[in-house]
UniProtKB/TrEMBL annotation:
Domain of life of the native organism: Bacteria
Keywords annotated in UniProt: Lyase, Metal-binding
Family designation: Belongs to the HpcH/HpaI aldolase family.
An annotated Gene Ontology molecular function: lyase activity
Organism: Streptomyces rugosispiralis
Stretches assigned to the HpcH/HpaI aldolase/citrate lyase domain: 20-243
InterPro entries registered for this protein in UniProt: Aldolase/citrate-lyase_domain, HpcH-HpaI_aldolase, Pyrv/PenolPyrv_kinase-like_dom, Pyrv_kinase-like_dom_sf
Entries under Pfam families matching the protein: HpcH_HpaI (PF03328)
Keyword Ribosomal protein: no
The protein's name in its UniProt record: Aldolase/citrate lyase family protein
Length: 255
């Protein structure tokens, strides 16, 4: 499915169909194995995941060891420090949470780009081995994606998508469901509003010519969302699949 990790940002910007996987565990060996399965990218969750910066660094190293998937990081927040640190660790793209306005999206873009296109500080202690290291080349090889997961972001989606230099938007389905009035992150009572919101984001990203992504609970849902107009999708997570597999084997063993 994937080609070269160095081409990842270009493929994302071209709205090629891309499928990734989500990692929340600090388990470099497990992440290395996942990175060799054929996913286009492996995204490490530094916002809600169970790993710190050393864990993120270890995950990026493990992903690169297989040489086929691109490493991404969902950073803890829209902050130059977190974004710069993730990129210096070797991430080929960041997913920035809780971006509500075009101004906030522009800030995220600036944190991803070296001058004169942005304000990223130069210090690629590890990323220089894989990405760039010339600033202009790094700017081309790094993808900036922001999340649409609040009512305010949904209202401002067209303006966010039109942000200069932004490569894509990404739906956080749990937060968006709650923002739409859901009592839980999977509340089906708001399913109609949720589907309408997805259609709105996918269409406005298409109009702006940027990528549209979404997190999915399984591969079948990812296929459905890609057919609906999303250009990239992430499948579940290592922790969820570990629990599901263990539970299934226990059921088989105990009848």
């Amino acid at each position: 499915m994937n080609t070269s990790p160095a081409d990842f940002a270009a493929r994302l910007r071209a709205r090629r169909r891309i499928v990734g996987y989500w990692v929340v565990l600090d388990n470099p060996v497990g992440t290395e194995r996942l990175a060799g399965l054929g996913y286009d990218y492996i995204c490490v969750d530094a916002q809600h995941g169970l790993l710190d910066y050393k864990g993120t660094l270890g995950a990026m190293t493990a992903i690169d060891a297989r040489g086929t998937a691109a490493g991404m990081v969902r950073v803890p927040g829209n902050d130059g420090f977190w974004i710069g640190q993730a990129l210096d660790a070797g991430a080929r793209g960041v997913i920035v949470p809780l971006v509500d306005t075009a101004e906030e999206a522009a800030a995220a873009v600036s944190y991803c780009r070296y001058p004169p296109l942005g304000v990223r500080s130069y210090g690629p202690m590890r990323s220089g081995l894989r990405v760039g290291p010339a600033p202009a080349e790094s700017n081309r090889q790094v993808a900036c994606v922001v999340m649409i997961e609040t009512a305010q972001a949904l209202a401002n989606t067209a303006e966010i998508c039109a942000t200069d230099g932004l490569d894509g938007v990404y739906i956080g389905p749990s937060d968006l469901t709650i923002a739409l009035g859901g009592r839980t992150s999977t509340d089906t009572s708001v399913a109609e509003k949720f589907e309408a919101a997805l259609a709105k984001v996918a269409e406005e990203a298409r109009t702006a010519g940027i990528a549209a992504g979404i997190h999915c609970p399984d591969g079948a849902t990812a296929a459905k969302r890609l057919a609906q107009g999303f250009t990239f999708a992430t499948v579940s997570s290592d922790l969820a699949h570990l629990e599901q597999a263990a539970a299934a084997h226990l059921r088989d063993a105990t009848g």
